[in-house]
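User: Can you fold this complex?
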Amino acid sequence: MKRWWLLLVLFSGALLADDCALRGTGDLAIVIERADGAVQIVETTHNTAIARVEGLGDLSHASVVYSRDGRYAYVFGRDGGLSKVDLLCARVEKRVIQSGNSIGGAISQDGRLIAVSNYTPGGVKVFDADSLELLADIPATWGNGLRSKVIGLVDAPGRRFVFSLWDAGEIWVADMQDPRHPRITRFRDIGRNPYDGLITPDGRYYIAGLFGEDGMAQLDLWHPERGVRRILDHYGRGEKKLPVYKMPHLEGWAVAGDRAFVPAVGLHAVLVIDLRDWRELARIPVHGQPVFVEARPDGREVWVNFAFPNNEKVQIIDVETLKVTHTLEPGKGVLHMEFEPRGEEVWISVRDRDRVQVYDTATHRLLRELPARKPSGIFMAARAHRIGL
Amino acid sequence: MKRWWLLLVLFSGALLADDCALRGTGDLAIVIERADGAVQIVETTHNTAIARVEGLGDLSHASVVYSRDGRYAYVFGRDGGLSKVDLLCARVEKRVIQSGNSIGGAISQDGRLIAVSNYTPGGVKVFDADSLELLADIPATWGNGLRSKVIGLVDAPGRRFVFSLWDAGEIWVADMQDPRHPRITRFRDIGRNPYDGLITPDGRYYIAGLFGEDGMAQLDLWHPERGVRRILDHYGRGEKKLPVYKMPHLEGWAVAGDRAFVPAVGLHAVLVIDLRDWRELARIPVHGQPVFVEARPDGREVWVNFAFPNNEKVQIIDVETLKVTHTLEPGKGVLHMEFEPRGEEVWISVRDRDRVQVYDTATHRLLRELPARKPSGIFMAARAHRIGL
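Assistant: Here's the predicted assembly.
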């Protein structure tokens, strides 16, 4: 009798205590609840919440990358915390405090390395994706032993990471073939105060937005020997710049056909770049200072949200006419938008209403609202399969 | 005692009898073992085989699409069988014989509909993705009540399916907003004998290859009112055509930057199309009649395999120089290639050697071989998140 009882406890424990879900991971997503240091795990097939995971520290400006199997989310917190969250079992699998002040991260092309970019002390740390063991520490040194804040960290094909140094005005490429001995290539004098970076969806071009001057710095990773060139130089020339309440994000880099759509800093405008020659093709006036500029996956529309005090609206740009065709009003504090991977729906976080909204992208109709506490970023697991996300 | 025992059996049964794997689905893939009517389930993180599922009927020319959560593979067999395979539990969840002779299928943008294109009787059937209940039957009628073979079936944004009629020389667009009442738009006289179709990765352009004439038919789905236009007209003019042992596949449509790479029918050549004006930009001589022409996900290389009797090799084209830079020799019967979604490795099936090979795409080195019985198609679950795959 006693033995049976013991076995039963063991079995039921394996089933119930973990409370893990046997399910596919392709339609999972994470919603950051920034004020609570928590994330919600949601699914995008029926648009429901599945679970909540707490204890992730300071999640202001948090971002997320995914393991290549889609099971684990790596959450980068502002406090330097790096947490590996198991989406199936809804728990923190591992967690390290890797610096004093962090701003984002990336996962290598092969999924084996996690890189984190830090403000304090400035640099990049690289971890084993399984164990979160520290493999490499890359201090962002420049000048007389100073250390620069690091921003705009992305993965690139060939097991590389690319990032920018805010204080130094440099772009670095780290070749991680030997993860414990990164080989760094430095590009100096790329422009003043790069504030964010992005990589084109094919992983070829790295672009850093410059806060200290009007323009962007572009590096062709197929031809690093050609160096960094300036694009969109002086796009704000002669215009009165507005105070910048929130730095635009470049991660939501919108490429539609042979055009790219990027937020202008300090202007109420989206810039359209012709990708054939990297020149400004058009400038689209919008409701406020754009924060995220994202292409619907079929490239027919570009959706834009805005910085305070204009953050109650989302505008939709038609890619053929380059005009704003629709304006939605989700409510105050629209912080992020994420399209489902094939584009049929989009998720929008509305912080001040404590809601996440799901819209049909064909009709632009609101389909569903889910409660969430001060939601900010939304990150879908399908990012696992994309370069630079 | 008796009650405990019963409970124990129930619990252990739930755990063990199903033998389901608690794991992410993002790195799973299926290898078709065509001669056995079976599939292998493999994973691409450690490159190992996980399980084998039998009883899928005639899998010559089989293809696969994935549920949006990545858990289920829908396998389309030549014998009209449509099987829903659970990758986590390694079993056939549901199976229907939906026609006498089928050639491929697609899953709708929202993941709720499965469409199958049939030779006999010619047409398209649409099923509920959950239950495999038949929702719509679209006979491909033309002329005096004849029915045409249907080929080149793809999904398109806006819950549409697009396909071509081999005998009729037509392209049809089926709007599935109301799944039980498809709305069909017919495009007639698009050219003789469309043999396969593809859709660009953004879901905008549908292209049908024409076997009955030199050229391809193109439909802009953003502007169906403009009708179908001919592209690459007379690409084989004045050249002696070779006997065609195997029809090229257009599904492995290779877009790299603003160029597309497509197989020429009956020629030892890959055609390069300038996507800005859809004209032939170059013609690359290759080892044999190309079957699959696929871009590495970063767009820097295009990999090509060949029809009998040249099917022992794979050639690699450099996208910048448009030249063949490498030739691999996996062995007789190279039937398919599939890149991992971020492109670090590629899987190649080598039928006559009963092997699947995995290559590092940066070094072109063979990393691993897995045994497989007469392997043909390889389909990764990350396809769930792509338009047109």
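Chain B touches chain A through 60 residues (CB under 8 Å). The longest helix of chain B spans residues 2-17.
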